[in-house]
Request: fold
Amino acid sequence: MSEANNHNKADVIVVGAGPAGVSASITVARGGKKVVLVERGSFAGAKNMYGGVIHSHAASEIFPNYQEAPIERFVEEHSYVLLSDDASTKITYKNPHHNDNAFVAIRAKWDKWCVEQAVKEGVYYAPDTLVKELIVKDGKVVGIVTDVEEYFADVVIIADGVNSLLAKQLGLRKKIKPKHVVLGVKEVIKLSPEIIEKRFGLKKDMASAMEIVGGPLKDVFAMGIVYTNKDSVALGIGVSLDDLKTKKIKPYELLDKLKEHPFVADLIEGGELLEYSAHLIPEGGYKKIPKLYTNGALVVGDAAMLVNNVHFEGTNFAMISGKFAGETALDAIERQDFSENQLCLYKKKLENSFILKDLRTYKDVVRILTGRTASFLGYYPEKINEFFGIFTCADGVAKKGKFQKFTKHFFTKRSLSELFKDAFAGIRIILGILK
Amino acid sequence: MIEDKLFTLKYKTDKQSHLKPDLTKCLQCVEKTCTIICPANVYSYNEAEKKLTVSYEKCLECGACRIACKHIDWKYPKSGKGVIFKKS
Reply:
């Protein structure tokens, strides 16, 4: 092992130029310290995909000028769509006074822009650089090994994403099982801005965000997403890896089934496939968060499994956790103390913020829901569609008999014990959140 | 068709595979989970030859196989290699 000298040492090395890594590095640079941001892709965003939005509160906290970024559209409305085999019921929230909370961006453009800002503020950026492992000396992380060299730092911030081989190397992670991750597969489908705005009922440059359950997805723990870009639509599913494994379902075939559902088919009709992608989403929640710090290192973003799967929040957790890690590194440099005892400040910052508070609030939700997939993501969406089917239909037949039949079927098609279990699960979720 | 989907992607292909399943374990493996869960259909098993084929050049680097199977030595492709997402 070579030794650290002026040429191969920074104050901080950040591994991974996603939202967490870039936020960490820019925070360190703003504190006047030397920081190197390392990215394995040939540009930031080249390896990234998401099924979501960028949240303005986090973007503005890191980049006050974020509105100059390559934003596709601001989210104007948020819809939840319940599917049966061929029908759909959609609930949409829209408020003209709150239509700048979030925006849709293409990661290859957004992540790249973020890194450009970081470089302007003094971050040393090294793309095309894979970190093979961390250098640990006397129980402290002291640097990284790349394909070509060793590089040293007082603090290494681990932002290498959901698979975090580096957190694994340090033994910070508990074993991750298929039930702790969701596989996201997505297609970006080209449509003209005019067609998008007409089809989704949107104002110019405004976006729709949709989450979809039921219908073709009913047999697995899965959700669909639809987001509108400027001149394309992102359509994807997030599906439990455990369910794919045990039920022997191919992820892209499930996505294709969703595309065939009339609700979705109408949205993407005539569109041309521009790009397919896949990525894992950490869904272990609060209980699967790794140890977040060790001597000389901090773990941020997806690498730390910081995702709120109920609200589809991840990019904001990444950016703010990155900022906290950057601040913690600056504080450690100030005190010249890079021990665990000093770096635990990072965890305190997370605990005092919405990040760990929210993850604690939702700690049991997904576990309870996965146990009731067939009912919450299958049976009830189907029944809700059946109800509205009756409610909205005038066909010269008296309503009473239809409602009686609906109610009778509601209780006979599903055993009473299953209904009780659902109710119990629902109560547990609500109590878990409120207590 | 998965091939049509993958056709939309750009890759900088490495000469060597970054995915190294323990092929001796495949012989006893009943589930062949890797052939199901992979979103890029990287793994296929030839029953006649009793051999797992790894089309690593199609890999999207998601890590699903790494978590679903214990017997894959999973690494990222070398610096700058592998898939390039441009519109995701």
The first helix of chain B runs from residue 2 to 6. Strands of chain B lie at 10-12, 19-21, 43-46, 51-54, 72-74, 82-84. Residues 34-75 of chain B form one domain. The CA atoms of residues 1 and 27 of chain B lie 28 Å apart.
